[in-house]
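Bug #77: duplicate submission created two jobs. Keeping one. Sequence:
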Amino acid sequence: MMRELGVLAVLLAASGCPTATVFECVEDAECSVGGEPGFCDGPGYCSFSDSACPSGRRFGALAGMGLADECVMGASTSSGVDTATSGDSTTGEVAASDGPGSTVSPQTSTSSGTAGTTEGSSTGEAVTGSSSDASSSSSSGGSDPCTVYDFDGAQPFEEIAPPFSVDVAVVGGVLRATWEPDELAAAALRIADPVNVSGGTLEVEFAEFPQEAGTVLSARWEDPNGAIVSAFVDGDEFLVSYTGDTGTVPVATEAHSERPLLRIRSEGDLIVVAAGDRDDFQTLATLDTAEMPFDLTEVDVRLVFDRYLSSGAATSIALESVTSCSIP
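Kept job's structure:
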């Protein structure tokens, strides 16, 4: 799936014509087709009634994350009401989209790193996160003071759990998401409420890459208009995508080659996504906000962990640190 998106990105770049390959929804009303009702399910994709699925619903052809035409394993609409569960899936207590328009009221996260409450971890204790719990440090460097989370304490971020919620906890000094065999689940964490990221940076440092394709960590900026810039790892690849009015467009795909750092940074009207180590970064993609509209002055900063394919084995992703820089 991800390799196909990489080929598609090359074709789109050559044609100069962005094409919607994924449709993200916020509410059920957006999913009505030909008068037939649909449902805004999972991490924000449309599903439709299908009696062949245990949940009674199947994702549409424009669902992302490998969910297109797959049965909804635990149906939860934009109203936040779970209607079915199937297999090893776990439904979250509160539904939210990891795309535009979370249904969970945000909690404030300031430049000093104050975050919300995270509960219900099977590998880590239930904690109320804060910058001191995470051993974060703030530094003012020019116009972009930074908060660095190095996970010497508790999980510091507010969870805005999708219907399927994977366990994310601080274990052994790293932030780790762990999936059981055949578990298809996701979790979205809010690093910061809307902040000004003009000249800002979001950087994640990997301690452990996913062992298989279909296991994803996405670092993303989301503006108030629903535009999303996402830099993510899927199996052995780094990918970059942009979500706008016409849907989600893949921008770049490249083997990660065990480079531990993935960075999103704004530079004037450009958003530059790069990967590397402390001494050497290589640009993966440059997005011009004049062509791909994005409001840098009011951005939600998020991490999304997701597993949409399974080989039948347990797997995990671990982060050594997360750095978020913004204008206060």
